Amino acid sequence: MSRIKGQIRKALSGFYYVASEGKIHQTRARGNFRKKKLTPLVGDEVIFSSEENSEGYILELLPRKNELIRPPVANVDQGVVVTSLVEPNLSYNLLDRFLVTLENKYIHPIIYLSKTDLVADQTLVADIRSIYEPLGYPVIDGEQDKQKLTDLFADKLTVFMGQSGAGKSTLLNDVSPGLNLETGEISDSLGRGRHTTRHVELLELFGGLVADTPGFSSIDFLEISSEELPKEFPEFRAAASKCRFRECRHVKEPGCEVKRRVEEGKISSIRYDNYLQFLQEIEKRRPIYKKNKN
Predict the structure, then answer these.
(1) Is there a binding annotation on residue 108?
(2) Helices 92-104, 269-284: crossing angle, 10 deg rounding
């Protein structure tokens, strides 16, 4: 039996479609994965067997660098956070939630601004750039330069995410017109887009791979601890070595370099206020007890 290395590109009805050397192989997962509570995900690098004229089997999952639950994808390189400026209005709080979550998963964020042509005050785009570009996050004006986004796809696995109604499906359809994703119209009564979910497939686009399903639209920090949170803000990481205390939370501690930089305007007060709110949420969170199935 041959052992071949490949990558799962699609999972559907118990079958895993694995790409290897330009071919797609239909496989199933070995039964022992269930015993080990392992679920292969789209994006996983795997070792599989493939016989002529018969189904292959996934034999081994190779180590993952990260995984997302919505959409269920592993080994993600970058996340495009689709951020609407109107209908729904810009929420720095929600944007920072996405950025913190991506940082926690070692996924590089790209901020994509949608509906910029509908904004009365064009200084808003400049304000967003001034906060996020110095942190190393590309900020792309969707109405001005869509190609700038697709230029970033090469050799990367990219997922899209963002608030409901921000235009994730519309943008995916724009970059891949053959996709024909359903776009959920914004419900006037709820002010939220309808969820249109489907199986996940990785599409080869612009020299990289793109998940064809938009990801999560809201975030509740269930996996991030209060110790980890400050490390998910790049500007806090840069300042923390100069804080008086090694594990400084940047709240009430004396000699805090982060607070000093906020006061001097070197760190965005919007970001810092969002950090304080997120920290409170995490500290008030009830512990989650998993049921013992034995």
Answers:
(1) no
(2) 70
Global confidence as pTM: 0.88
Domain match, 111 and 13 both: no
Nearest to 6 by CA among 61, 45, 41, 40: 45
Binding site annotation covers 164?
yes
Q: Is 148 marked within a binding site? A: no
Q: Is residue 77 part of a domain?
A: yes
Count of the separate structural domains present in the chain: 3
The tens digit of pLDDT for each residue in 86-114 reads: 888 899 999 999 999 999 999 999 999 99
- For residue 268, the enclosing domain spans 229-284
Please tell me whether 115 is known to bind a ligand: yes
| Mode of pairing for the β-strands spanning 23-29 and 15-20 | antiparallel
Q: Are residues 241 and 261 in the same domain?
A: yes
Please choose, from the candidates 284, 255, 253, 258, the residue with its C-alpha nearest in 3D space to the C-alpha of residue 273: 258
Q: Which two tokens stand for residue 294?
A: 């034995």
CATH, residue 9 = 2.40.50.140
27 is in an annotated binding site: no
Our CA dihedral for 155, 165, 121, 273, rounded to 10 degrees, sits at -80
Q: How far apart are the first and last CA of the chain?
A: 36
